[in-house]
Structure formats: structure tokens, C-alpha cells
Records
---
Amino acid sequence: IITVNAMLFPTSVANSLIAVGTDGLQERDRMVRAAVAIICELALKNPEVVAKRGGLSTILKSVIDCQLSRINEALITTVLHLLNHPCTRQYVRVDVELEQILAPFTDFHYRHNADTAEGQLKEDRESRFLSSRMAIVAAFRSWSGIINLCKVGNSGIQSLIGLLCIPNMEVRVSTETAPNICMKN
């Protein structure tokens, strides 16, 4: 359907794909990656349908869920592609969407899933730090990512730099090791 005419893509199917992409990991649904991949492709061909249904938030939530660098980069690149073009930029909420990738670093009480057990909280935080680092690196590889994360005012890069002054060692150690991840990529 997307290949033939993405403008005729049924909203009911888009709603279903976004629901699977948003809550599928918690439900252990095996169609999560396929649903998110279709949402990404639809976002490139018909961004209005995806944006109005909350699909961009689903994509960015999937970025924080994914520790595989190629998939993580493909997901964030979809949003960066929309930000790069003036006709599609309107669908990305300015101070909300892209800053979601910074949440594991900038929110001390960040929990990706409210159902995460206390015993697994440390492992979950470490995997979110890794996913967030990969997404930040991918964002800084494009002009649209640099411009959006470094904009004047309350920007994402200012928040990350501000973290280095905070006495919370767990976040500081994760932030200070980010250059090592950048060098590997």
C-alpha cells in the first residue's frame, strides 16, 4: 500500500501498527520490529498520518528500546529526515519529539516502563543509556540533528553539558563515557 499510494494508507491500519509499536515490547509481541519498520516507512511517504496518530513518539520510544546500532540509527534517521525538509518539519513537535532521546540522561527518575522491577532497574537504565548514546551520536551526524539539539534557549546539548555539573555520579559516568562510544562509531 505504501509503495503504490501512501496517501491512501488506511488510518485504522496505522492506528494498529502504532499500538503494536508502542506497547508491543511489554506484551512480548513478536511483530514489534515489523510494525515500527512499517511506521518508519509510512512516516517518510505520508508523515501526516503518522504524526497525527502519535507515530513519531512510537518511533522515538523504539529508539530508546533498541540497543542494535543499525536499527537505532535507522529509527532516529527517520525523524531527522522529517526535520530536514521544510514541508515535513511541521509534523515534528519542536521541543518534545527529538529531546526524548535525551531522557535517560536528563531525567534522574526516568523509567522507560513503569512495570520495570526494582531488581532489573539498574540493567534497564544501562541499556537505556546505551540506546540514548547511540541515538545522540546518530543525531549529531546530521545537520538537522545538530541544529535541533543545539538551538538557542533550552536546548538538548545545554542539558547534557549541565549534567556534568550535577553530583549524581551514575549519570556523570554515563555521560563521560559517551565520547568513547562516539569514537567506536
---
Amino acid sequence: SGHVQLPPPQNVTLLSKDFDMILTWTPGEGSPPDVTYTVRYESQERMEKWIKVPHCKNIHRTSCNLTCVLRNFFVKVRARVKAVSGQFQSPWVESQFKEYHLDVELAPPVLNVNVKENLIHVNASFPLATCVESFSWMYDLNLWEAGSEDKKKYEGIFRKNTVTIDTTALRGNYCLSARSSFQSIDFKHSKFSQPVCVLLNHKG
């Protein structure tokens, strides 16, 4: 049989990471150095209809960000990938099904902290793709005196809103940390961000 088949991609996984839905894989054992990959996906709305992903056709890398090609974030999807080299190609290998809305994994937000006379203004920025910016992302903020376990909590703040904290009564080193939160069937949270600490009302 003169038909040589390429080794198929391995460990094909659809994973949600840091607000994105990404297909990842590893090269099949013994893949040639010039191998490229092509990805398609299918949604449970229309089974057996595999949709092309223009930015993941004949690519050299071993991942494909599908977030902004998904037409419906509330339907399960799966993806498949094949290896291509010259006129040879591997069989397609499929991932498991995932749904963005249910399975999204959150990353901690980055805090922007602005200390004024007797106020702190805090807002959070999220590493979001533009196609999911309209989702109702929220964040929770903690404030505490360095070394203390007693945290003041500000919960369920809309992503674009700034929290203003009156610091008139606070003196010393205070720390802030936040996590992303999102309501799907249950509440999801990211880990808390690395604390940002500021010195308040310091009489030098």
C-alpha cells in the first residue's frame, strides 16, 4: 500500500483558561519537522457540521484560540485537528465537548490602585477577548491592614466600576486583592490577585 499516513496529533484537549476557550494538542510521535495543523469545530446546535477556523488553517503552533469564533457561548462545542505535510495528512482527532458559559475558567484581575488625599480609587482590568466583554463579569475586592486577618470585603462589583474607599480613619500599611467572579449555574471565582499594598496617612 503506497498510502503513507501521518501520525495524528495527540492529547487533543479543549480547555478553558483565563477567559479563553483554546484547543491544544501535541505532535504525533515521529511527525516530520514541516508538519502543519488545521482545526475545525462543531456545535451541538448543528451536529456533523464541522466549521472551518480561518486563523487555524495550516498553522505550525500546537494550539488554537476558539473564543471569538464560537457563535453561541451557551451551547456545547468540540473541536478537531489534523496534521498535514505535503500531500499527506493524518486522521482528524476530536476533543471532548465544552461550553464556554459553563466551563469558563477565570483569571484574577489586575488591580489599578490610585491613592488620593483621603481616598483610594480601585478598579480592575480583565484579560478579556472583545467578543466576551459584554458578559456580566464582576469582581470581589478585599482590603486589610498588613499582618491582619481581618478583611473588609467589597463584593459583586461590576467589572468596569471603580471602588472608592475613604481612608480618613486608616493609618499604616494596607493591602488590596481582588478576584474575578461570574454567575453561570453556580458562582465561579478566580484565585485572588497578588496583593497591592499602600502606605496610608503616613506622617513622615
---
Amino acid sequence: ASVSEPVQKCCTENIQPFLTSILEELMGPISSGFTEVRLLFDKEVNEIIQDFQKTNDMTRLKENVDQLMTLPFNSVKMEPCYLKVNLLQELLQDLKSRFKVYHIDSVIQRTQNFMQELMENAVYTFEQLFSPSHQADSAKVATTIEKVKLRVLK
């Protein structure tokens, strides 16, 4: 009871007024990172479509889809996504000194893990909705891939 009032006053005066701006500031890099994941998935699927339109080769299409499944674990391709979130390092340094926010690296690592998980979910869903072996009409394959991609991105 004796601590409650001073703590509430401290939170109301020193923390609560800043929460909205802090959240907005943190969401910038996080949103950028997740947008980059979306763009990477879109780019990779578009490359599969373009390759299939050039070659019309179902075996190669299957290989490309299999390769897409490894995308979440391809650190080189995922790196631009992760770099967007690294901007949190600078933003969180200011918060660390003002609000005693610790474990900055943990926040960044968890965000990057969520990004990888999102990509895993996207490629898994893509694979489930589109199976090259079930495509009888190769003329419609590119259109089907595009529709599946749009469905996954939704």
C-alpha cells in the first residue's frame, strides 16, 4: 500500500506519456523487416514463374519449388530482412538509458526468429496450395502459381 501510490505516480508521469511514441518508433524497423520478408517471397515466386514461362519444364519447376522451401534457412537471401530489424539496436540504446530496457539483442533476435517463422509459414502454405505434380495443364501453371502467391501474401 505504501509503494503503490508512488509507483503509480511514477508510471503515469514518466512512462505512460512516452509509450505511444516508443511503440511507433520501434514498429518502424519491425514493419520494414516484415515488409522485406514479403517482398523477398514475392520476388522468389516471380522468378519461379518467369523461369517456368521460359522453359515450360515441369521437372525444373519442381526443383525451383523445392528450392523455395529452403528460403527461410538461406541466410544470404534473408539477410536484407534481418538488417532492417538491426536498426532497433540504435533505437533501443536510447530506451535502455531512459527506461532501463535490457536484453536488446534478445529483442532483435526474437524479431528475426519471427521473420524466419513467417517465411517458413509462407513457403509451406505455398507448397500446400501449389503442387507441380498435380498440375495437368502446363499452360495454366504460371497463372496458378500467381494465384497461389497472391493467396499466400494475403
---
Amino acid sequence: VFPSLAQAQASVANEVYQELGQPSVFLFCPTEYCSSLCSPSPSQSCYLQTIGQELLPGISVIWTGPKVVSQELSAVLLEEVEAVLRRRPVIWDNLYANDYDCRRVFLGPYMGRAPGLMSRLHGLLLNPNCELQANFIPIHTLGTWFWSELGSCAPPDHAGVEAVAALGHSQSAQDGSYSPQEALELALRDWVAEINQQALEPGK
């Protein structure tokens, strides 16, 4: 029925999206969802070109970066992806994912993401460690990164200022820069406080 896989996928996705009344959040994960899966590159991929052309503009497209688990995300790559998809991507960030290797647990800060990246994104989803307790630092430092990105995009509103203050009066968060080391120290301080609080609860 369809001349290509991309056209088939776009057609089905468009039909489901319209049948559901064009919801404000509708995510599409392409077969080529990172640079290493594209042939020969994201900008020259016939598959992604078709997806960009055929997929209705209200549908968001998931992207993981250069690889399935990307150590770095650059603005240059996201510009290329945005151009071929004709929309800003939603990053599905596998930086902390360990479902493919249960021996691996990443407790470090959110890092390797270029400053000013948020303006290139339609959204960001974090794929965490499978172990719930191991995600305090990843999620906490992601929050610090998020507020620093807000600071670099536009002057924060009153709520934004309060949220930055709640993160520990971090100067880097307030001036729009992000320091993974500072973010880690803030997260560790709050994690120790959380552990101590839980230790005082009955039955712990």
C-alpha cells in the first residue's frame, strides 16, 4: 500500500493523532531515532526527510542524540535534526539508563549537554536508572540544569527565582550557567538530608 516504511508510519501516526482529536502531547518515535541509526546522516536520511514532510506538524518526534546513549548533545546536531524533521525534537535522554546492563548504575550529575540547548528542544524526557533510589542525583541535577537553562533563555519570573533559591541559592543557576560539580554538591547535600529524614521515620 505504501511506497516506504516512513510513509506508512507517518500515515498511521497522522490518522491516530487526528482520531484522538489532535492532543497537545503526541509523541512519535521514528525507526531512526539517533544519528548512528541514520544512513548516511540525519540530514541526508531519506527516511527522516519523509517523516519530516509527511508527519503532521502537531506531532512531536523523539530523538536520543548522536547515539542511543549519548554522552554529549550539541546545538549543531539539534539544528540538523530540527531542519530535517521540520520541528524541534523531544530528547529522550538515555544518559542514566541501565535497563540494558543491570551492573551499571550512574550516580553522577546531569552533564554533557551544551549550554542554551533548551531553546532547540520541544521537550526533554529522562530515562532513569531502573533502581528508584539511584535517581535522586540524576533528577535533582537535571532540575538545576533546567533552571540554569531558563536563566539563559529569559529573565526568570518570580516563581522561577523562588525555585532557584530552593535549589540552594546557586549562583550558577541564577546567572544562567551550569556547573555539574556545583549541581552534584547541591544534590548530595539534599540527598543526605532526605536519607537522615527517612531514618527518623517509624519503621525505617
